[in-house]
C-alpha cells in the first residue's frame, strides 16, 4: 500500500482541526475533521480558492438552516426540503462544487437536540471553517506538491515506452493486440500527465518577478507535454497503418526509420537538457537531411510514388504518417528553441525543481 503526500496531509489536517475544535468545545468537534477531509486540494492555489468558496457555501447553508429551523422547526421533512433549497441556491450562484460540505453544515446545524440553537449553529459553523483553514495551512506548509519533478519524470517514462514501441512497430516485430493494449495504457498515462500539468499551471507566485519566472517554466513544461502527445500520435498512426508500413519499399522504409531515429534522439536530448544532464546547445534540426544516406522524407515519398507506383500500400495512409512526423518535428523544434533561449537568456531562473529520486 502506497501512502501519497495528499493522504498524509489529509490526516495531518484532520488531526490539527480536531485538536483546535476540542480546545474550543468537545461536543460536535468531529465536524472539523469532516470539513478538513472535504477541503484538502491537490495544489496550494485550489486550497486558497477553497477557503473563499467554502466560506461562501457554508455561510449560505448555515443561514438557510437557521432561518428554516426557526420558522418551521427540526422535522426531518423540513431538513430534506432545506437541503433541496440549498443545493438549488448553490447551483444558481455557481457554487455547486462546494455542495457536499455546505449540505453537511446545514445538516449538523439542523440536527439540534437541546440548548441555545443560535449559539450551537455558530459553533458548528466555526468548526467547519476550522477544518477548511487547517487543510489550507497544511497543504501550504507541509510537503508542497512537486509538480515539476512529477511532470518531468512522467514525460521521461512515457516517452521511453513510446520510443520502444515505435522501433518495434517500424520493423514489424510486434503483435497487434499487445501493442493496442499498451497504446491504450499510454493514452491514459498522458491524460493523467495533462491533468498534472493543469494543476501545475494553476500555481501562483507571491511576487511579480516570481510570476514571470514561473510563466517561463510553465511554457517549457507545456511544450514538453505536447511533444510527448505528438510522439504518442506518431506511434498511434504507425500502429493503425501497420500493414501499409510493412509493405513499403525498403528504400522508403529506411528513410522513415532515419526520420524517426532523428526525432526520437532529439526528443531524448531535449528531456535531458531540461534536467541539465546535457549542455543547452541549440540543435540544428536540418543537419541530418544533408547526410549521404538520408533524404528529406517528403521528397523520398514523392519520388517513390512517382517512379515506382504500387498498390501494396495506401499512399493516403503513408501521407498521414508523414504528416504526423512533420507535426512531431515542428513541436520538437519549438521546444528546442525555447529551452535554448531559457538557459541562454534567463540564467537567473534556470533552475527547475526536479528531484532525481522522484518516484513515478
Automatic annotation (TrEMBL):
Top-level taxonomic group: Bacteria
Keyword flag Transmembrane helix: yes
UniProt membrane topology term: Multi-pass membrane protein
Ranges that cross the membrane: 12-39, 59-81, 93-110, 122-143
Chief localization: membrane
UniProtKB keywords: Cell membrane, Coiled coil, Membrane, Transmembrane, Transmembrane helix
One Pfam family cited in the UniProt record for this chain: ArAE_1
Coiled coil: 176-203
GO CC entries: plasma membrane
Family: Belongs to the UPF0421 family.
Protein known as: Aromatic acid exporter family protein
Amino acid at each position: 500500500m502506497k501512502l501519497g503526500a495528499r493522504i498524509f496531509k489529509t490526516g495531518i489536517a484532520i488531526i490539527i482541526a480536531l485538536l483546535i475544535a476540542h480546545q474550543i468545545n468537545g461536543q460536535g468537534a468531529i465536524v472539523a475533521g469532516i470539513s478538513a477531509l472535504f477541503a484538502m486540494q491537490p495544489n496550494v492555489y485550489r486550497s486558497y480558492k477553497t477557503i473563499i468558496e467554502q466560506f461562501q457555501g457554508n455561510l449560505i447553508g448555515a443561514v438557510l438552516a437557521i432561518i428554516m429551523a426557526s420558522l418551521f422547526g427540526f422535522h426531518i421533512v423540513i431538513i430534506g426540503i432545506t437541503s433541496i433549497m440549498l443545493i438549488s441556491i448553490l447551483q444558481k450562484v455557481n457554487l455547486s462544487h462546494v455542495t457536499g460540505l455546505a449540505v453537511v453544515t446545514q445538516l449538523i446545524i439542523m440536527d439540534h437536540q437541546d440548548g441555545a440553537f443560535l449559539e450551537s449553529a455558530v459553533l458548528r459553523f466555526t468548526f467547519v471553517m476550522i477544518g477548511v483553514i487547517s487543510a489550507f495551512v497544511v497543504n501550504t506548509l507541509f510537503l508542497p506538491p512537486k509538480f515539476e519533478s512529477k511532470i518531468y519524470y512522467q514525460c521521461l517514462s512515457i516517452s521511453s515506452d513510446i520510443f520502444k514501441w515505435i522501433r518495434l512497430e517500424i520493423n514489424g516485430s510486434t503483435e497487434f493486440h499487445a501493442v493496442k493494449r499498451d497504446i491504450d495504457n499510454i493514452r491514459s498515462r498522458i491524460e493523467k500527465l495533462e491533468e498534472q500539468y493543469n494543476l501545475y499551471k494553476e500555481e501562483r507566485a507571491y511576487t511579480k518577478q516570481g510570476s514571470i519566472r514561473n510563466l517561463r517554466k510553465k511554457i517549457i513544461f507545456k511544450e514538453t507535454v505536447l511533444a510527448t502527445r505528438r510522439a504518442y500520435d506518431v506511434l498511434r498512426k504507425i500502429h493503425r497503418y501497420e500493414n501499409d508500413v510493412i509493405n513499403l519499399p525498403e528504400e522508403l522504409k529506411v528513410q522513415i526509420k532515419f526520420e524517426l531515429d532523428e526525432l526520437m534522439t532529439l526528443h531524448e536530448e531535449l528531456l535531458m537538457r531540461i534536467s541539465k544532464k546535457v549542455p543547452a546547445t541549440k540543435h540544428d534540426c536540418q543537419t541530418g537531411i544533408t547526410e549521404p544516406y538520408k533524404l528529406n522524407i517528403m521528397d523520398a515519398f514523392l519520388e517513390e510514388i512517382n517512379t515506382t507506383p504500387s498498390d501494396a500500400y495506401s499512399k493516403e495512409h503513408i501521407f498521414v504518417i508523414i504528416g504526423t512526423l512533420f507535426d512531431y518535428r515542428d513541436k520538437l523544434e519549438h521546444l528546442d528553441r525555447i529551452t535554448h533561449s531559457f538557459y541562454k537568456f534567463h540564467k537567473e531562473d534556470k533552475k527547475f525543481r526536479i528531484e532525481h529520486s522522484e518516484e513515478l
